[in-house]
């Protein structure tokens, strides 16, 4: 009986040591720079992978608005829908649709860029 209790205790300690809160922690990319975000270098790649090229917000999209140019992305940033949808806030459609939220780092980068006035840099 004593061995079983020790075994269970060790198993709990070992399993809890393997737990990570996010993919960023697991991959070791917890260092997320959100200072001086550039549309071209930082924001555009996130939008391309998660929104525009993924088949939803591309040029010619019928049921959605496109996010293929700086001006299209800036318009959604200015009206607040970009961040609200990415943060899965109530009252707006959560984006990306039928997928998990963007990482905290990606949302942090976009938030920083929007807070800086969404510059075309």
Average of per-residue pLDDT values: 78
- Give the class from helix and strand content and strand pairing: mainly alpha
Count of helical regions: 6
Number of strands: 0
H and E string:
HHHHHH
Q: What does the main sheet amount to?
A: none
Description:
- With 121 residues, this protein is mainly α.
- It has one domain (26-115).
- Helices cover 51% and strands 0% of the residues.
- The protein is built from 6 helices and no strands.
- It has helices at residues 2-17, 23-27, 39-52, 70-78, 81-86, 104-115.
- Helix 3 crosses helix 6 (104-115).
- The radius of gyration is 20 Å and the shape is elongated.
Any descriptors?
121 residues; mainly alpha; 6 helices; 51% helix; 0% strand
Summary, kept brief:
Helices cover 51% and strands 0% of the residues. The chain is mostly helical and 121 residues long.
């Amino acid at each position: 009986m004593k061995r079983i209790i020790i075994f269970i205790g060790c198993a709990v300690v070992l399993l809890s040591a393997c737990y990570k809160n996010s993919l960023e922690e697991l991959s070791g990319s917890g260092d997320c720079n959100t200072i001086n975000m550039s549309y071209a270098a930082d924001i555009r790649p996130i939008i391309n992978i998660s929104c525009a090229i993924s088949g939803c917000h591309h040029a010619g999209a019928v049921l959605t608005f496109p996010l293929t140019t700086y001006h299209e992305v800036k318009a959604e940033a200015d009206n607040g829908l970009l961040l609200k949808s990415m943060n899965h806030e109530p009252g707006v459609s959560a984006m990306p649709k039928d997928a998990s939220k963007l990482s905290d780092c990606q949302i942090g980068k976009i938030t920083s860029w929007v807070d800086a006035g969404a510059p075309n840099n």
